[in-house]
Amino acid sequence: MMELEFSTLISYVIVVLGLFLLPGPAVMLTITRTVQSGRKGGIMAGLGIATGDFVHTLFAAVGLSAILMSSAFAFNIVKYAGAAYLLYLGVREIIRKPAGWQLPKVESAGVVKSYLSATIAEVLNPKTALFFLAFLPQFLNPERGETVVQLLILGFIFVLLSVLYTTAIAFSLSAFGKVVRRTAWIGRLNRLSGKFAGMIYIGLGIKVAFQRQQ
Q: What subcellular compartments does it reside in (predicted)?
């Protein structure tokens, strides 16, 4: 039996791809590793980030499923709290004034260190954990089957898209590291995509307010 509706999966993929347009820490780290350590360094950093995201998915799946089994009311509280957090993120992205953009400073590293450092950084990032707890429940439907399975499917899709996206970045930028270092085009993209991502966050937040009014 399908645990998630096809339309839900399509909507989820579109939203995730939209969020990837915002150059966050994961994108910045991938760019930096590519510039400093070449294509392999960037790819391994992206794989490390994806590994960290999968760890957060596992924690979210276990925690949210436990909440659902204890009380449907408690699970709804989690969903609405997550929606409120997404609304906050959306408003913050829209009104914020980005500071001057620059690549983060990290030491040049081999492929193994690039992978491990990115994994550890992502696993230990509390903002990532909070984001997954707020984001993933917005696409769940407890009536469609096991919540754990749904969360793992959503998490796996997120991780797969993340790997494809960061790998594409590494391939695209590996030959243009010096150009990227000396130009501000990513800074302008950051400002524009921040507004776009903000609207996505807000859209997800208000989605909860209407989906149960049937």
A: Cell membrane
- 161 to 18, 63, 168: CA distances (angstroms): 11, 23, 11
Q: Tens digit of pLDDT for each residue in 99-140?
A: 555 555 555 567 788 898 889 988 888 878 888 888 888 887
**pTM, entire model:** 0.77
Q: Which long-range contacts (CB under 8 A, 24 or more apart) does 11-19 make?
A: 11/139, 12/139, 12/154, 12/157, 13/157, 13/161, 15/200, 15/204, 16/157, 16/158, 16/161, 17/161, 17/165, 18/196, 18/197, 18/200, 19/197, 19/200
pLDDT(17) > 80: yes
